[in-house]
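Hi Y.,

Following your request, here is the sequence exactly as I used it, all 207 residues.
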Amino acid sequence: MRHLSILVSWVFHPLLLCTYLVILLTRFLPHFLLIPTASIWMFIGLVFIMTFVLPVLNLLMFKTFGSLHSLQMHQRRDRIVPFVLISIIYAVVAWMFYYKISTNVNFNKVMLIVAVLVVTATVITFFEKISVHSMAAGGMAGIIIPLNKVVADNSLLWPSVFIIVIAGAVMSARLYLNAHTLRQVMYGGAAGLMIGLTGMLLLFRGH
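Below is the corresponding structure, written out as tokens. Let me know if you'd prefer a different format.
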């Protein structure tokens, strides 16, 4: 069970949230992003590099120079500086998609919500430890669930159910590994869900 919990924690790492969102949307709601078929995997690769590879390189740099004792970042104080730099990366990426990269406005809005999730997690970390895994899972659910109202064929129904199940699995894994308390996991999930839902309702009003 421990090995499964570790696998779930790595496969559904918070930094993979944006990549999974793009893959899911291009598969089940392609008209939402309006990305040419020939460019889909190139776009996914770009998102993966900017939202996963760059932050991971940042963490590895801290680990190499001894500023970070463990990539798990068990202690709250170990998370602050890496989280701040990751927040800067996500804020810059969101800004780039808005102003420098010609892409669909819908993705720009989703990227903005993801950036808000990351920055909020960082701000909370200044005061207490929270489950960022749970926050990312809740945020993904909060982003995807409202989109069900814009599809007539219920194509997002089962993906939404799957995301909810995964969110439960991620929270259970974090608890099983004693990485977080129940309070930290529940707060993380609730915060992510609230930010995702609020962001979608505010940015996609009238859609």
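The chain has a mean pLDDT of 87.

Thanks again,
Q.
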